[in-house]
Backbone:
């Protein structure tokens, strides 16, 4: 039986390993992490991350061929294949601070793998890493005298949070990069065979190592670039009475453009888009490619502009003062169906509202605990309220910041009745029926569409 160890029990390590264990009963999977609380939570029904469908898959495989442990060394030692799925955040110090990836976590893993391994292993980069990291990893793994052979593969993960289990069960593609040597190709086939237990062979793409590493950064950069492109157009729509939804539909029906990732919003969030684009910028700069670096940097700059523009719209439409006004924020997660708030646009929006001395009430079905931690610096200006009706009680305005389906189904007449008048609603996700809200009496503002106002 093939033994797999995954280092890192986070948003990627947990769900991907649960899916492998569920689909491929010929392997034994152990997920290890230095975070004992996380490992403990993976062993209960109160998992450390919220992801629709995840608990069912975990429960099916846990104790059968899926295990969670804090014994990192033992996990590595026993394994034939070691996935490295640790975090690779943006560096906050030294050279490349604010742009380059902080590579200390994967390097620690590589050193640990070298230290404790007594048999040959396939090492799989699951984390998102700068192109040519595998080369550095191989140097660490094979430094000095070491009779053990490690074959490094790149197998980036493309799951999106909120739909992780669907994405893992029926991926558009699985990408595996390996060396074009006999041992590289053999390792690549071993991993491909595991995925092939449930993924059609023609969806398993194989490339060289560097193409695979770079494809992951490129995919995220292209996705984020689409969001920034439509958000740039949303600003022009607001100035010209064009409707960004109509523009998106019109261009999305061109099969060369396609309809996905054209939803204008307050901006993209999540732990990866910004980090991965900035990593790409840093890589371009490191290779002396100034213009490509500037091109990609602009995708992040536009995103920041969009977040700030949203707060300015709120301020200007509410008579240029929101001091002491109660503002109900509906949604704090960076997207629906997750409790993850990393790089959520809501963080910046709340901070900017607080700097205008607004009284903020944050509501979210899954992300309140994370929101509390994210907003400690402005905790004097923020309350947290799970119930959106209570959050909106007495409020001057509602700001919809996450596209939770729940917000579509609320009784907005009841909400309106309990609010200060004029009652403002800022739909940062363009997800509500704006005509119906206007009929109720709301002052309605959205992204890239004209306002609907009873004033003047
Ligand atoms: P995460 O922070 O949720 O999880 C990483 C885990 O690694 C943590 O639990 C941490 O304790 C553990 N860890 C760190 N160093 C360790 C060590 N030396 N030994 C053992 N455990 C260690 O991160 P994530 O969101 O799962 O992302 C992991 C990687 O996957 C990143 O490179 C990210 O860019 C990439 N990625 C993330 C997503 C996503 O949706 N979150 C999707 C695709 C790819
Ligand atoms: C993204 C990619 O979609 C995954 O393929 C990738 O694996 C992952 O990053 C990663 O590397 O971490 P994720 O960040 O989980 O996944 O979620 P997305 O669905 O991509 O949404 C990202 C952000 O863009 C969200 O804030 C979302 O609300 C926003 N978005 C998305 C828009 O504003 N408009 C859109 O049309 C689409």
Residues:
């Amino acid at each position: 039986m093939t033994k797999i160890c995954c280092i890192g029990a986070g948003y990627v390590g947990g769900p991907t390993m649960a899916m492998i264990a569920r689909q491929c009963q010929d392997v034994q999977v152990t997920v290890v992490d230095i975070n004992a609380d996380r490992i403990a939570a993976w062993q209960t029904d109160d998992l450390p991350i919220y992801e629709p469908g995840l608990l069912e898959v975990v429960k099916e495989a846990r104790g059968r061929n899926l295990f969670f442990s804090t014994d990192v060394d033992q996990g590595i030692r026993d394994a034939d294949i070691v996935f490295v799925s640790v975090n690779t955040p943006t560096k906050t110090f030294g050279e490349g601070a604010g742009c380059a990836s902080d590579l200390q976590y994967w390097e620690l893993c590589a050193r640990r793998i070298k230290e404790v391994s007594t048999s040959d292993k396939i090492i799989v980069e699951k984390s998102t890493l700068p192109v040519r990291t595998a080369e550095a990893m191989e140097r660490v793994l094979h430094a000095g005298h070491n009779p053990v052979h490690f074959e490094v593969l790149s197998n980036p993960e493309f799951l999106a949070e909120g739909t992780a289990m669907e994405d893992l069960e029926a991926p558009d593609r699985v990408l595996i990069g390996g060396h074009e040597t006999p041992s590289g190709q053999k390792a690549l086939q071993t991993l491909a065979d595991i995925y092939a237990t449930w993924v059609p062979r023609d969806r398993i793409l194989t490339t060289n190592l560097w193409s695979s590493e770079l494809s992951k950064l490129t995919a995220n950069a292209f996705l984020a670039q689409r969001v920034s492109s439509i958000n740039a157009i949303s600003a022009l729509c607001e100035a010209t009475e064009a409707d960004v939804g109509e523009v998106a539909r019109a261009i999305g029906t061109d099969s060369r453009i396609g309809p996905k990732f054209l939803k204008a919003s307050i901006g993209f969030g999540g732990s990866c888009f910004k980090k991965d684009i900035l990593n790409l910028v840093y890589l371009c700069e490191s290779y002396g490619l100034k213009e490509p670096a500037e091109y990609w940097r602009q995708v992040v700059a536009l995103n920041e502009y969009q977040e700030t523009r949203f707060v300015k719209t709120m301020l200007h439409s509410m008579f240029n003062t929101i001091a002491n006004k109660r503002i109900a924020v509906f949604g704090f997660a960076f997207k629906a169906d997750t409790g993850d708030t990393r790089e959520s646009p809501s963080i910046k929006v709340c901070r900017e509202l607080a700097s205008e001395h607004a009284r903020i009430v944050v509501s979210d079905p899954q992300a309140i605990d994370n929101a509390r931690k994210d907003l400690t610096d402005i905790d004097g200006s923020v309350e947290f309220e799970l119930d959106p009706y209570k959050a909106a009680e007495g409020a001057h305005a509602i700001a919809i910041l996450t596209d939770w389906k729940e917000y579509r189904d609320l009784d907005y007449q009841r909400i309106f009745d309990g609010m200060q008048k004029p009652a403002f609603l800022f739909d940062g996700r363009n997800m509500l029926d704006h005509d119906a809200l206007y009929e109720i009496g709301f002052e309605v503002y959205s992204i890239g569409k004209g306002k609907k106002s009873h004033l003047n």
